[in-house]
Design brief:
13 helices, 14 strands, 3-stranded antiparallel beta sheet
Length: 398
């Protein structure tokens, strides 16, 4: 490649054996392998924008770093980057075509996190879940039928307190259909990405509602929001399934919907009064009514993301965490009131400075559950002293 072009890649600084390194990782989640490089190599990689030749990169690196780098070293770097599928190249495009074709042809979305985020074996996973929910399987029944659940999508280990507090309420949920909204952590073209695949877990495969498939594929509006690819590696919905299976231990169907960014709405370029929001909400209500099955609407959604890991330069001291908790409480008050617009505007007033990654799934959950009542039953802030993620568990009922 005479003019190598870097793909959309995350550059994550870390230290190893006293050396400052940069981890180059596929930001789209399509490639598992990552590449650790020194800072000077990372700068060289940043020059690979598709417009510079190898000699251009050589000359610009010399001007910036004040040292000569042989052309053979740059060629070797390009070769290694290409082998790791980090460049926009024929190798990468061929790889992507193969895995896209395989994924779209499969009726099942395989468990991506099995063996990574949780045990891949059925008995090992059941043992883990049994220990996770030991002593909290029973909870006070809400004063009505459960129509919705707000849960985290952080990993089980860090979110265990909230998972333990909220998931026993699933036993009281309307069934057999569970509509699951989750944050999509990758860029998407639309607000919703609907999957009509069955979802596999180590416990069993959960079917997408058969009646729903036909209703959605024939719906004049919702059919344009069917988009399977974003679901392939996304964890926000996948992490909910073993917990649901463990709690209800009976057959159920799902409708998985990943939600995209509302950045344009936060910035004021678009408003929540636009037709798209109204049509998405009303169309799904109409489809669920036509399907005729009792259903529950669950969202896998975290709250604030603050600290060094997320680009903040301020210290993450006790006062900062307490201030963030107070702001979370203001947001949770709108969830308690099942007030979608109030929830959105509370985050908009902050300009989403704390990166509420559950903004879109919770917003639509509240829209769809208008008229219900809600309780927040658990809340937690995870922190390692430098970064923090907060999350809550809520139950909606009629």
């Amino acid at each position: 490649m005479e003019k190598p072009k870097l793909r959309y890649v995350e550059a994550i600084p870390f230290e190893q054996d006293g050396q400052d390194l940069i981890l180059l990782r596929d930001a789209e989640g399509t490639v598992d392998e990552a590449l650790a490089v020194s800072r000077d190599v990372a700068f060289m990689v940043s020059l690979m924008d598709g417009t510079r030749t190898l000699r251009d990169i050589q000359a610009e690196f010399m001007r910036a770093a004040g040292e000569m780098v042989y052309l053979e070293r740059i060629e070797e770097l390009v070769r290694v980057m290409d082998e790791h599928l980090l460049l926009d190249s024929d190798r990468y495009n061929s790889y992507m075509k193969t895995i896209r074709d395989e994924y779209h042809q499969s009726p099942v979305r395989r468990a991506y996190l099995a063996g990574k985020g949780y045990a891949s074996g059925r008995m090992d996973l059941l043992a883990f879940l049994d220990e996770m929910f030991d002593g909290c399987a029973d909870c006070a029944a809400p004063p009505g039928e459960v129509r919705g659940i707000l849960a985290p999508h952080i990993d089980y280990q860090r979110g265990i307190k909230v998972y333990r507090g909220i998931y026993p309420y699933v036993k009281h949920a309307a069934k057999p259909l569970i509509v699951i909204f989750g944050t999509c952590h990758r860029p998407t073209n639309r607000l919703w990405s609907i999957s009509l695949k069955d979802f596999e877990t180590p416990l069993e495969t959960v079917p997408c509602g058969q009646g729903l498939k036909e209703l959605i594929t024939s719906h004049d509006f919702l059919k344009h929001y069917i988009d399977e690819w974003p679901h392939r590696t996304e964890h926000s919905i996948e992490l909910q399934l073993p917990l649901i299976q463990f709690m209800i231990q009976e057959d159920f169907e799902i409708l998985p919907i990943l939600t995209g960014s509302m950045h344009e709405y936060i910035e004021g370029a678009r408003t929540t009064a636009e037709d798209e929001v109204r049509l998405l909400t009303q169309s799904l209500k109409d489809v669920l009514h036509a399907c005729g099955k009792p259903y529950c609407i669950l969202s896998g959604a975290d709250l604030a993301h603050i600290g060094a890991q997320f680009g903040d330069s301020y210290p993450l001291d006790r006062m900062t965490l307490e201030e963030s908790k107070e702001k979370d409480e203001a947001i949770l008050a709108h969830i308690r009131n099942v007030d979608a617009e109030g929830f959105f505007h509370a985050i908009q007033n902050e300009r989403d400075s704390r990166r509420i990654c559950g903004l879109t799934p919770i917003f639509f959950q509240l829209k769809l559950l208008d008229g219900c009542r809600s309780d927040i039953v658990s809340y937690d802030q995870w922190t390692d002293g430098q970064s923090s993620v907060s999350f809550a568990g809520g139950v909606f009922y009629r």
